[in-house]
Design brief:
The protein is α+β, with helices and mostly antiparallel strands. It is built from 17 helices and seven strands. The protein has helices at 46-61, 66-74, 81-96, 100-115, 125-137, 141-160, 187-198, 227-239, 243-247, 280-298, 307-310, 322-325, 328-336, 343-355, 360-367, 375-380, 386-404, and strands at residues 2-4, 11-15, 21-29, 32-41, 254-255, 260-263, 274-277. Helix 3 runs antiparallel to helix 4 and helix 8 runs antiparallel to helix 10 (280-298). The chain starts with a strand and ends in a 21-residue tail after the last helix.
Length: 425
């Protein structure tokens, strides 16, 4: 039931079936009839309802639409950056990107705090620059480049899926200047690094109640990272593969009898499966991890074993070295007092192979690089270079051992000699 007020135009007392009484006001906006709820009687008296009605009329005369504005405020916007991020992550990042974890982290840490409730269609180039500028100011220009790249990919997805018409990040230059790193470890640094990775604490040097973990001496420091991670770094050096690929090494991908490790396409950076020859030194390191895992399984309750994690060579039951992998090079650098990053191992191995005469395209095959030659040649050239890769890594293993033993380069066998050498035991 509705009772109209004869004093204020459009004011109505609406009586609901439940007995509640609401003051409402009817008006027209752009040809459409609207109803504005003013309040509930008797909380809102007749006099106050008339005043509220007059205030609303004044707003309407100035072109306002109080009922429409109130409805818009209640509606959850669907074109926000937060909504786009949710769809982008679910339908693209987690399905098609190998670096999904880092992509999500950048979006959650560097993008959403500033843009969460912004309309995607209202973003401008100035907004994009304002997003990355504080990252540059805090001394992280390279990270600012990464954030810009993530934003550009997300907004490109938005353009393809009709969230917005144009990408405001498409013509913005990188805020940080990136220089290709050329660091190659010296022979002395290689010796010190290998010795450190092999120097795990003895029982007396381990942490115990009332006793801190020993750091060793200046001439004989103890490795600051756990044994599985030190072993992974050695494998990275011996195989010249990427650190992330080494840490994902699984027992199912290994043929230790034949000396091969197959990196699945989903783990490789370029998406191509890659066969990596394993020299005897690498096989010995990997077998030592299997022994350590088996001993740990005997001491662990069967119900607490994560068999998915246990399939990984360098992942112990109950934890993963991947969580500490990014910090390991900086910890090693502090102990050795040298500039060192994990990727320097791969670059150094490739450089030393070249110094021993390994052909460049054989090194490229070892590194699993994508060739930039004619596309038709790349399509039809399916030769695996397995024999050449094995000779290259065996040559590098001998060079590494000579460096560790402080032999002169002239005592090394030339590249290709291992092809006619009897196999080592």
């Amino acid at each position: 039931m509705e009772v109209r007020d004869g004093h204020a135009r459009g004011l109505i007392l609406q009586v609901l079936p439940s007995g509640r009484k609401l003051w409402t006001m009817r008006y027209r906006h752009r040809g459409s009839q609207r109803r504005l709820v003013l309040g509930e009687y008797p909380t809102l008296s007749l006099a106050k309802a008339r005043d509220a009605c007059e205030d609303a009329r004044a707003e309407i005369r100035n072109g306002g639409d109080p009922a429409g504005e109130r409805q818009a405020a209640r509606e959850v916007p669907t074109d926000t950056v937060a909504a786009l991020v949710k769809e982008y992550v679910a339908k693209h990042v987690r399905i098609k990107m190998r670096g999904a974890t880092e992509e999500e982290r950048v979006l959650n840490v560097d993008v959403l705090p500033s843009w969460k409730d912004r309309s995607v269609r209202e973003l401008t180039r100035r907004d994009v620059r304002a997003l990355v500028a504080p990252i540059v100011d805090r001394g992280s220009p390279i990270m600012a480049n990464r954030v810009l790249a993530v934003v550009r990919r997300m907004l490109n997805y938005g353009v393809r899926n009709d969230w917005l018409d144009a990408n405001p990040a498409s013509l913005i230059d990188k805020p940080g200047q990136e220089v290709s790193r050329e660091r190659v470890l010296t022979d002395d640094e290689i010796r010190r690094l290998w010795r450190l990775l092999s120097r795990q604490p003895t029982t007396a040097e381990r942490a115990a109640p009332g006793r801190k973990r020993s750091k060793g001496t200046a001439d004989d420091p103890i490795c600051p990272v756990a044994s599985p991670l030190a072993a992974a770094l050695k494998i990275q050096f011996l195989t010249a593969q990427r650190g992330g690929e080494v840490l994902k090494m699984r027992w199912r991908d290994l043929d230790l009898d034949a000396g091969w490790w197959t990196i699945p396409g989903e783990y490789a950076k370029n998406g191509r499966a890659h066969r990596v020859p394993l020299v005897p030194e690498a096989i010995a390191i990997i077998k030592a991890q299997k022994k350590g895992n088996q001993e740990q399984e005997k001491e662990t309750d069967e119900h607490s074993i994560d068999h998915k994690k246990n399939d990984c060579v360098f992942v112990g039951i109950g934890g993963s070295v991947r969580d500490r992998a990014k910090k390991a090079p900086s910890r090693i650098a502090r102990v050795l007092k040298i500039e060192f990053r994990g990727h320097d191992l791969r670059r150094t191995a490739a450089t030393k192979m070249a110094e021993t005469g390994v052909p460049r395209h054989h090194i490229s095959a070892v590194l699993n690089h994508v060739e930039h030659g004619a596309r038709v040649t790349r399509v039809y050239d399916r030769y695996s270079y397995d024999a050449e890769k094995r000779i290259a890594l065996e040559t590098w293993a001998r060079r590494l051992q000579a460096i560790i033993d402080q032999q002169q380069p002239g005592k090394l066998l030339p590249f290709g000699a291992s092809a006619i050498m009897p196999e080592r035991a």
